[in-house]
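Action item from last week, closing it out:
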Amino acid sequence: MQAKTKRTVTENGDGGEDSVLATSIGNGEDLGPIVRHAFEMGRPEALLHQLKNVLKNKEVEIEELCKLHYEEFIQAVDELRGLLVNAEELKSELSSDNFRLQEVGSQLLSKLEELLESYSIKKNVTEAIKMSEVCVQVLELCVKCNTHVTEGRFYPTLNILDLIEKNFLQNIPLKALQKVIENQIPAIKLHIEKKVSSEFNEWLVHIRSTAREIGLMAIGQAASTRQRDEEMRTRQREAEEQSRSGLGDYTYTFDVEEINEDSILKFDLTPVYRAYHIHTCLGIQDQFSEYYYKNRLLQLNLDLQISSIQPFLESHQTFFAQIAGYFMVEDRVLRTAGGLLSANQVKIIWETAVAKMTFVLDEQFSRMETASHLLLIKDYVTLVGSTLTRYGYQVGPLLEVLDNSRDKYHELLLEECRQQMVDVFANDTYEQMEMKKEYEYNMNVIAFHLQNSDQIPAFPYIAPFSSTVPDCCRIVRSFIEDSVSYLSYGGRLNFYDVVKKYLDKLLIEVLNEALLKAIHSSTTDMSQAMQIAANISVLERACDLFLRQAAQHCGIPVRSIERTRASLNAKLVLKTSRDEANHALLNLVNTKLDEFMALTENINWTTEETPQNGNDYIKEVVFYLDTLMSTAQQILPMDSLYRVAIEAFEHISNSIVSAFLSDSVKRFNVNAVMGIDIDLKVIESFADDIFHSTGLSEIHKEGSLRDCLIEARQLINLILSNQPENFMNLVIRENNYSALDLKKVANICEKFKDSPDGLFGSFSSRNTKQNALKKSMDILKKRLRDFN
């Protein structure tokens, strides 16, 4: 049959294309590509013709299929008719069963409706009970909330409100009650916020008023700690000094007591904690943090305003105590308030405060004219810095201001010391101090290590210095203490070199200048100049003491200073001034000697007889020298005494030689020279006595004071020698006349000549020895002329 169908299709159209199209339709394939291809090729009619052929083929196949199964269709229809009869019977049975079932179920249905109604009532009652329970719980919570609000217990109140909002508010069955509660919750929260904000504002006022007391208490603790440290260092210095002096071994201990400052500095932060916690519960903690920060910053700005009525010297303690208390509170808030303040915020307000404080200090320091005032403020600022450092605040800028002001402080201090020393020098009589009691000796000598021996002398004790020395030592000691006080507890750990620098400045620019002014004063006489020289010598030795005192106050071991052999530049300067004082003293001595030596003009240089006891002027000279050396021995140190003696005797020697060279002496004879020889022997004998009685012979074992008169002695020896011509013999001159100048000898020998009233006028009548002397002198004169 299929073969026949295919054959029919082939006969009615294009066999190949119709078969492809029929296969595609039979397989359910998409005909879109075939249709698109037909239209693209311009043959839609051919496609339509093919589709019609396929349709005809399908109709033929259906027709043949029906003819093939005709009998089966008839049989199926007969079976359906038999089923219809059975269905009618079944329908009749179902109708009668349904009638009987409805009769029985009508009673049950009425019972079921009663049961459902009962269940509905029960459900409504149960829901009503549950609704009542919810309302009761909510109302009970509302009552508790009201009680807590009345009692000021806001945290439990907020917990209840939060509970109502989360668990009950949306489940309240009564809309009226729900609306009332919903409206009251924000009102209660607003009331709580206002209440805690009011308490916090009261705390702001209270804490600002108590911040000063907090700061003062903390600064007082810092001062006590510093005092304990100072006492410990003092004991250490005493032990070191005693050990250094060989008085024995001493030990000292100190206790370190840990102090919990939070327990001592009690101030209440409860309102802050409470307000921040409540605002956190309300979800507006950031708002409260900003409010806290702004208000505290406003308070700080008020605290940083200095009083325009009260002087800063009087108000600086309250000013800095207020600021210290402020930041101690902020530190406690930062550590304990759980995020209310950030470390960055505290850093910002601290930098603001430091900038203002440094500006105030710079401005106030620039106006101050008294060192003690500046020191007072500096000490308090360092205490404030020490206090706040323990709380982690960086106080470097404050200490830097103090360090920058150290030059001004020391200039003021130097000026005060200068005025004190001016008064000391003005009130000094330049007489040796007399101490009648041991306490005076301890106060003026032992205290400054000015003693020459460790043994207590007999009283009354006459010191080799005047009152200027201990008074100046006290001024220097006070200067060291004040300088160390200013430089200590600052930014520098080792400030010994700075103290040493200013100490040098005091000794050089103040003390030494005062000494030079006294030295060059027109009213200074010889005894005063001698006392000034002695004072300088003592002060020069005291420089080592000043250096040790500076080291001790700076905490530097004295042994290290002694080991390095450090010294003050002022010591050399004072040595120079001592030399200048000695020079001034020598000028005065020489001036006085010149007055006596001027009496040589009264000598009869052509006398016919030799003076038996010398000339009169020599007695005045010896008396003056005796007085001079006696006074100098009591006042001056041995080196200065030796120098005065040398200069005095050398000046006398020079004066004797100058007398021969004087224009007023036209000629002289041997008698006059013999008189000068007697004078010179008196001076030489006195020089020997002084050399031994003063103890100079024990120090200067080589030579003596007689050597200072060597020029005059050699001149006299030359003139009185038997063969003066030997002076031109180089060996003899080096051995016997080394101190003589050829030109001076030539000029003097020219004045030694014969005269009618003198020795040279009668040489012809004298013995051969005298003629030989004259001949030798003439030879010397001639050789000296030839030499010159």
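Closing note: The beta strands are 434-435, 461-462.
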